[in-house]
Amino acid sequence: MTDTSRAPEQGVVLHGTGGVWRVRTESGIEHDASLRGRLKQEGIVDPALKLAVGDRVTIEPADPGPAWAISEIHERSSSLSRRSPGTGRTERVVAANVDQVVVVFAMVKPEPHPRMLDRFLTIAEANDLTARIVINKVDLASEAEARQRFHAYATAGYALHYTSTKARHGLTQLRDALHDRVSVFSGPSGVGKSSLLNALFPGLSLRVGEISESVNKGRHTTVGAFMHPLPQGGYVVDTPGLREVGMWGIQASELDRCFPEIRALRDACRFTDCTHSSEPECAVRDAVRAGTLDRERYESYLKLREELE
Ligand code: GDP
Ligand code: ZN
């Protein structure tokens, strides 16, 4: 029998597998809940409506089966989605209601590849999400060196953090930046994502690297994201799916708006559909020549564009 003393509650989806979703209510209690048939059906018809980690939902007492059922999915304020190449339609929502994407790279070990960093940033930009860059392991070089190396990203307008879990450097500022926000953590493996999160929030024992690497190994399907509540408010989303499959169906023609410093220039080009590769009177190429637009970033743009075409 349904316990009628239990009223519907509002919650957030933390993770889910095999039709059972973990929902955290406003009071911080977690319940397993299944999706009402009608909502399940909607998700099959339109992938954009499929339930995702980060979704805000209403849950109701259910009987039989899992004790709770998700009866409503609330409108999303944002999402990190993969789109089908060509159509640009949403193929899969990786996480909903995301406030920012935190891209973690290491100063060394592994050596940072700017092009890979640009790829992560492009995915965030294509989803209209703020991106924040963390350069970890500055103890193996120096913050000054790191600042110089990633200078172009600061110029482009990105917030940068220089951290070391070993030297406990830059942790307070990063913790503040995560406070009360939903942050998707991403970056190559081995850069120190799990170490960082454990150093920032001891006791949470976030298994970022572990989950991303082991669960995904040898599988072609993507394992879903995990959302971890932070002790002082906010969430960190750990998603193994962020760096698989190239550029997520981004159109070549929209790539220039995924580079903030190119986006700021493109209206000054002579042609509105300028690809900034060979056209005359191109404000982007002029800026590269004048040294006001970073050449590496521009080359990244060209390479990624080539890939998308
Ligand atoms: P993840 O795959 O991104 O989650 O990376 P891990 O957190 O597993 O860290 C990978 C390796 O880098 C481990 O051996 C860590 O001890 C090391 N590591 C993490 N942070 C730092 C740091 O700030 N400085 C140094 N020198 N090593 C670090
Ligand atoms: Zn141009």
Written overview of the protein:
The chain has 309 residues and is α/β, with parallel strands linked by helices. It has 3 domains: 9-73, OB fold (Dihydrolipoamide Acetyltransferase, E2P); 79-238, 3-Layer(aba) Sandwich (Rossmann fold); 252-308, Ribonucleotide Reductase Protein R1, domain 1 (Orthogonal Bundle), CATH 1.10.40.50. It is 28% helix and 25% strand. It has helices at 37-45, 114-126, 143-149, 151-156, 171-178, 193-200, 208-216, 260-263, 283-290, 295-308; strands at 9-17, 20-25, 30-35, 56-61, 68-73, 79-83, 90-96, 100-106, 130-136, 159-162, 182-186, 226-229, 235-238. It has a 6-stranded mixed beta sheet, with helices on both faces. It has a 5-stranded mixed barrel with strand order 1-2-3-5-4. The protein has a two-stranded antiparallel sheet with strand order 6-7. A hairpin with a 6-residue loop joins strand 4 (56-61) and strand 5. Helix 2 (114-126) crosses helix 10 (295-308). The longest helix has 14 residues, at 295-308. The radius of gyration is 21 Å and the shape is flat. Residues 269, 274, 276, 279, 282-284 line the site of zinc ion (ZN). Zinc ion (ZN) is lined by residues 269, 274, 276, 279, 282-284.
What attributes characterize this protein structure?
binds zinc ion; 3 domains; Rossmann fold; 5-stranded mixed β-barrel; Ribonucleotide Reductase Protein R1, domain 1; binds guanosine-5'-diphosphate; 28% helix; 6-stranded mixed β-sheet; 309 residues; alpha/beta
